[in-house]
Amino acid sequence: MAHLLVHDLKVRYGRTDVLRGASFEVRSGEIVALLGANGSGKSTALNAVSGFVKPLGGSVRLDGQELAGKPTHMIFRTGIAQISQRRDLFPELTVEENIELGLATAPRGLSWSDQAAKIYEWFPRLYGKRHMKAQLLSGGEQQMIAIARALVSAPRIILLDEPSGGLAPRVVEEIAGILSKLKDEEHTMLLVEQNIFLATAVSDRFYILRNGQVEEGDAIVKGAVTKEDIVRSVYL
User: Fold this and answer.
1) 191 within 8 A of 160, measured Cβ to Cβ
2) pLDDT-derived band of residue 46, with 50, 70 and 90 as boundaries?
3) Global pTM?
4) How far apart are CA 58 and CA 53, in angstroms?
5) DSSP, residue by residue, the chain
6) Which of 115, 172, 104, 110 is nearest to 139 (CA)?
7) What does the pLDDT average to over 125-134?
8) How far apart are the first and last CA of the chain?
9) Distances from the Cα of 19 to the Cαs of 46, 53, 112, 215, 222, in angstroms?
10) Rounded CA gap, 230 and 194, in Å?
11) Could you give the count of Cα atoms lying within 13 Å of 66 in the half-sphere of its Cβ?
12) What is the distance between the alpha carbons of residues 189 and 80, in angstroms, rounded to a whole number?
């Protein structure tokens, strides 16, 4: 179970207020998306939750435990896993070695042998390439490695920053299928995504960030508005 509650989150870079009191919620088993134009504060919100950016103010609670201002390694130990836009793989390590690194923040006693079969069930394409160096795989396959590594840590919630970035439309569809499968198994995810059509396809609810604040303060439930309405709201 996981319940993330972010309230009145503020982040400043130098003299620029990037987040100006953003509030949002992710309930257990949901995929929730943060949408917005470039510069709206989406990735900053994710980085503030995981501790890569120190908030100026506000609250970040996971199942009631306050995380705001704590070091990143301590936040990850609470069960948060983040997948960055860069994917942050070790190119000279094999696919399997990269995935196993997720065990560094996994609950004590959890081993690779406990999870290997499930990981390769989710990502069958990686099984045949598990002994190849990560740098030899395509961008889509590298994104799969990053997601698999996060799952190995047995996270309570996964934060995904632009998982479709730089990928061909066909590969984006495959990533969407993987995220939908994980949602069916009640994994909890907070998704930042520029590709509105991907985000709305896999998310249960979404928030629109504009100028560092959540527009109207409430999440929009999937199906309540059309994708065209969302595009207009985000970009116009």
Assistant:
1) yes
2) very high
3) 0.88
4) 13
5) ---EEEEEEEEEETTEEEEEEEEEEE-TT-EEEEE--TTSSHHHHHHHHHTSS--SEEEEEETTEE-TT--HHHHHHTTEEEE-TT----TTSBHHHHHHGGGGGSPTT--HHHHHHHHHHH-HHHHTTTTSBGGGS-HHHHHHHHHHHHHHT--SEEEEE-TTTT--HHHHHHHHHHHHHHHHTT--EEEE-S-HHHHHHH-SEEEEEETTEEGGGSPEETTSS-HHHHHHHHH-
6) 172
7) 96
8) 37
9) 11, 11, 38, 12, 25
10) 12
11) 8
12) 10
Instruction: At 53, give phi and psi (nearest 5°).
Output: -125, 135
Rounded CA separation 97/107 (Å): 18
Residue 181 structure tokens: 């499968």
- How many Å apart are CA 172 and CA 178, to the nearest integer? 10
- The position carrying tokens 């860069």 is 86
- φ/ψ region of 51 (left if φ > 0, alpha if ψ in -120 to 50, else beta) reads left
Both structure tokens of 54: 């120190």
**Does 216 have pLDDT greater than 60?**
no
Please answer whether residues 210 and 40 qualify as being in contact, where contact means their C-beta atoms are separated by less than 8 angstroms: yes
| Average pLDDT, integer, range 81-88 | 88
Q: What size, in residues, is the chain? A: 236
Other residues' Cβ atoms within 10 Å of the Cβ of residue 18: 22
